[in-house]
Design goal:
Helices cover 48% and strands 0% of the residues. The chain has two helices and no strands.
Length: 139
């Protein structure tokens, strides 16, 4: 009787081991690996999308806080970015904010340039010669 019992236990262990081995082989097939990688990539993409939405929501909330703190609701202050102006071209400024608003207290944009406009106005000087042996390619 004991022999039959141990033979049944051995057969059951062999069936269990074969099932585990077949499961591991199925997990390592190319189709299974590509499916697992695709599901992981989709999950990662969903997480990145959720993160971007959270960042946008936080930026909008902080922007509203700053507008409230600075009193900028309802004002349109647009200062053009500084660009190089050629001679004879007129300079235009954006429409300033309404009088009494915080933006009206901003200083006007500086239009006087302190740097030369062209390279011809800048005097050039030769670089001093360094001591040492000349390059073989120069000979």
């Amino acid at each position: 009787m004991a022999r039959i019992f141990w033979m049944a236990v051995g057969a059951g262990a062999a069936v269990w081991a074969m099932n585990k081995a077949n499961g591991a082989v199925q997990k390592l097939t190319p189709d299974s690996l590509s499916g697992t990688a695709a599901r992981g990539a989709l999950h990662l993409g969903d997480l990145a999308k959720q993160f971007a939405q959270d960042v946008r929501a936080g930026m909008a909330e902080r922007e509203e806080q700053l507008k409230d703190d600075l009193g900028l609701h309802g004002t349109a202050v647009v200062e053009p970015r500084q660009r190089r102006v050629t001679r004879g071209e007129p300079q235009y400024r954006a429409i300033s904010a309404a009088p009494g608003s915080p933006a009206a207290a901003l200083p006007p944009a500086r239009s006087a340039r302190t740097t030369p406009r062209t390279t011809e106005e800048t005097p050039r000087r030769a670089l001093p010669q360094r001591g040492g042996t000349p390059n073989r390619k120069d000979q």
